[in-house]
C-alpha cells in the first residue's frame, strides 16, 4: 500500500469503518484482563522507614540497602514470622528497599493481606537494624553496653590509683624512686591510649545507632497492577493490536491502486476513467456484492454485522458531478477507442469476475458505444462492444470470432499485478489484443428525485453479461 496507510485520515477511516470489530476486540481484551486479574490474586504493600543518623556516603547507603534485602536478614524474618505457606525464596521476592533523602531507608513488604504486609515490613525493619548493628561491631544487648561503661570506670579508677602511687613514692632523687615514677607514667599513658582506641572502634562515637521510625502503616488499597489496571491494559492492548494489524495488512496489500501501475501490469494504454454512482450514499468504493451476502449463512451475517464484509482502506467516494459530465467521460473513452482503431470493429469488454463497479461501468460504456452517435468527419462510428466477465483465478477469454480485440474495464485497488498479468495473457491466448484500459471509480449516489422532477436526458442502460468459463460465447 502507498503512504496513505500512515496518515491520520487513514486511521480515522479505519476507526469509522471498523468500529464494530474494534469494539468487539476491546471487549475481548477487557475480559482477558479480568481473567488475568483472577489468576493473580491482589497484593498489598506496606512500608517502614529506618533512619541512619550521622554522616553517610552514597555508597554506604547502597550497602545498607543491599543488607536490608539480603538473605541473612530475610531468613531471620522468615524464622520470626513462621508463615508456613510462604517459603524463604518467595519472601525474599516480596521485600524491597531503597534509599531516600535524609539518610532514610524505606523497606517495603508485599503480602496477600494488609495485615501481613504491615507485619512483614515491620519485622524486616527490626531485623535489619539488629543485623546491621552486629556486623558493624555494635550490639543491641544492654548488658554489653553496661560492661563497656564499667570498663571505662575501672580505667578511671586505675588512673587515680596510679596518681596516688606516684605521689606516695619516695620524693627523693634516688634511682629507684625515679624508675618507679617513670613506670607509673608509662602505665597511665598506655591506659589512655587503650581507651582512645576503644572509643574510636565504637561505631556509636561517630554514628548513632539506626532507628526504626515507627510501625508501618496498614495499606488500604491493592498494590499495582490492580484489577482495574489489568482490565484497562487488556482492553488497550487488544485495541492497539487490532489497529496495528489492520495497518500492517494494508501495507502488505499488493493490489494495484494507481492507473500507471494497472496499465503497466496489463501492458496497454489507459483510455480514461469513468464514474459509477454507488448503490447508496454510504457505499464504499471497491465493494463487491459478493462481499455483502444477504441471508446466506450465519457466517455471512456475522461478517456483515461486524462490518468486515467490505474493505476499509479505499478512500471515501467523492460527490458526483452532474449527469452530463458523467456521460462526457464515457463518450470520450469511446471517441479515444474509435480514433485508436484503424477501422470499426467488434470488441470484447473484459471485466474481472466479481468487480461489480467495473461491470456497471462496462454496461454503461457498451450502451454508449452502441448508441452510435453521428459519425465523425472520418465517417467512422463507435466500435461495437460486448461485455464478458472473466475469472481472475483461471482466466479464459472467448476465442477470436466476430470480436477482434479486448478492452479491459476494472476498478482500482481490487487486483494484484499477477492477476492482471494473467488476464492479459488470457486475452492473448484467445487471439485478442488489449487495445486499452478503462478504470472505473465510485462516486456518491445522487439524491433521489421527486415525482415531479423531470427525468434526465440520459437513457438508463443495463450490462449484458457474457460468460467466459471455457465454453463458446
TrEMBL record:
Keyword Cell membrane applies: yes
Membrane-crossing segments per the record: 21-40, 228-249
InterPro entries referenced in this protein's UniProt entry, alphabetically: Bact_polysacc_biosynth/exp, LPS_length_determ_N
Claim: RNA-binding is one of the keywords in the record: no
Domain called Polysaccharide chain length determinant N-terminal: residue spans: 5-69
Subcellular location: Cell membrane
UniProtKB keywords: Cell membrane, Membrane, Transmembrane, Transmembrane helix
Mode of membrane association: Multi-pass membrane protein
Main location: membrane
Matches recorded under PANTHER family: CAPSULAR EXOPOLYSACCHARIDE FAMILY, TYROSINE-PROTEIN KINASE
Family that this chain belongs to: Belongs to the CpsC/CapA family.
Protein name: Wzz/FepE/Etk N-terminal domain-containing protein
Amino acid at each position: 500500500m502507498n503512504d496513505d496507510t500512515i496518515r491520520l485520515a487513514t486511521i480515522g477511516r479505519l476507526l469509522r469503518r471498523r468500529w464494530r470489530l474494534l469494539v468487539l476486540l476491546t471487549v475481548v481484551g477487557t475480559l482477558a484482563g479480568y481473567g488475568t486479574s483472577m489468576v493473580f490474586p491482589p497484593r498489598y504493600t506496606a512500608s517502614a522507614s529506618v533512619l541512619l543518623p550521622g554522616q553517610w556516603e552514597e555508597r554506604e547507603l547502597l550497602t545498607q540497602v543491599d543488607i536490608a534485602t539480603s538473605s541473612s536478614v530475610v531468613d531471620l524474618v522468615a524464622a520470626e514470622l513462621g508463615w508456613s505457606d510462604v517459603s524463604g525464596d518467595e519472601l525474599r521476592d516480596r521485600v524491597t528497599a531503597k534509599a531516600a533523602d535524609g539518610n532514610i531507608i524505606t523497606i517495603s513488604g508485599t503480602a496477600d493481606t494488609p495485615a501481613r504486609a504491615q507485619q512483614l515490613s515491620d519485622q524486616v525493619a527490626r531485623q535489619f537494624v539488629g543485623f546491621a548493628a552486629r556486623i558493624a561491631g555494635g550490639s543491641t544487648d544492654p548488658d554489653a553496653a553496661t560492661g563497656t561503661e564499667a570498663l571505662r570506670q575501672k580505667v578511671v579508677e586505675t588512673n587515680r590509683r596510679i596518681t596516688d602511687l606516684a605521689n606516695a613514692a619516695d620524693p627523693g632523687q634516688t634511682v629507684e624512686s625515679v624508675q618507679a615514677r617513670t613506670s607509673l607514667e608509662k602505665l597511665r599513658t598506655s591506659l589512655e591510649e587503650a581507651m582512645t582506641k576503644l572509643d574510636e572502634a565504637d561505631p556509636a562515637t561517630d554514628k548513632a545507632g539506626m532507628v526504626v521510625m515507627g510501625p508501618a502503616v496498614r495499606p488500604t488499597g491493592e498494590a499495582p497492577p490492580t484489577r482495574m489496571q489489568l482490565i484497562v491494559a487488556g482492553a488497550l492492548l487488544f485495541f492497539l493490536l487490532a489497529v496495528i494489524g489492520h495497518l500492517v495488512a494494508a501495507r502488505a496489500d499488493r493490489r494495484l491502486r494507481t492507473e500507471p501501475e494497472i496499465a503497466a501490469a496489463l501492458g496497454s494504454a489507459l483510455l480514461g476513467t469513468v464514474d459509477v454512482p454507488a448503490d447508496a450514499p454510504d457505499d464504499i468504493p471497491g465493494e463487491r456484492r459478493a462481499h455483502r451476502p444477504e441471508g446466506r449463512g450465519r457466517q455471512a451475517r456475522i461478517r456483515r454485522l461486524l462490518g468486515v464484509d467490505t474493505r476499509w482502506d479505499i478512500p471515501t467516494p467523492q460527490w458526483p458531478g452532474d449527469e452530463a459530465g458523467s456521460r462526457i467521460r464515457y463518450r470520450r473513452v469511446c471517441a479515444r477507442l474509435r480514433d485508436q482503431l484503424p477501422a470499426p470493429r467488434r470488441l470484447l469488454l473484459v471485466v474481472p469476475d466479481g468487480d461489480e463497479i467495473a461491470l456497471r461501468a462496462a454496461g454503461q460504456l457498451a450502451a454508449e458505444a452502441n448508441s452510435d452517435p453521428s459519425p465523425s468527419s472520418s465517417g467512422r462510428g463507435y466500435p461495437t462492444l460486448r461485455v464478458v466477465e472473466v475469472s481472475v483465478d483461471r482466466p479464459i477469454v472467448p476465442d477470436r470470432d466476430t470480436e477482434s480485440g479486448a478492452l479491459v474495464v476494472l476498478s482500482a485497488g481490487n487486483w494484484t499485478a499477477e492477476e492482471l498479468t494473467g488476464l492479459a495473457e488470457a486475452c492473448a491466448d484467445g487471439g485478442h489484443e488489449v487495445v486499452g484500459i478503462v478504470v472505473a471509480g465510485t462516486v456518491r449516489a445522487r439524491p433521489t428525485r421527486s415525482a415531479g422532477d423531470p427525468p434526465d436526458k440520459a437513457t438508463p442502460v443495463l450490462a449484458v453479461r457474457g460468460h467466459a468459463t471455457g465454453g463458446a460465447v
